[in-house]
Task: structure prediction
Amino acid sequence: MLRYLRRTTLVGQRKDYDRAEEYYQKALAADPNHAITFGNYANFLAGQRKDYDRAEEYYQKAIAADPNHANNLANYAELLVLNRPFEIALDYLRRVAALPVFHDEPNDSVSILWMSGAMLVVAGESITAIVGSLKGVVTAADYESTWNYDDLNAWVEQTFINSAYAAFWIAVGRVCGNVEKVTTLDVFPQWRDTPPMPIEAGLRAASGENS
Result:
């Protein structure tokens, strides 16, 4: 987790979570309707405290404060994928993929597409459009990512019944997270045989619009 949480000395080095939480609470008291502060505090609760119930509460507050904040929407999606029942995560991802904000946020749209693809594989549905959209984004020369897919990839390894497809989707996650070069995906026919597609095609598939 912790995609966008600034790693302060308190959190990153001394691991003084109690004092870090105190500062988050002071920040919220000073500005009780700040979407980024809500979201960062939710990241802290999920990543450091492993308190997923409170994290969910603050993600929901963050989204209520700014329903179109792509980072918070994507981070909340990850919490649901990793810690909530499959049906809840899939329903949320479908609703979020339909939001226009992700058409203009390549970094966050990639995370939504990747998680949606994982959900649809488990559901036994086609992800061709999602693979095509991911290919269209991550093969761009200027593609960058601030996401870490390690926890999500571990989830795939534990969840996917088909180990060969798990290996493919984990490899896609590593490319999406800029850990591996996109050329490492050329060994997978699912990648080679799928043409690049506009990001809108994958988001429509992820939202269930093509069903």
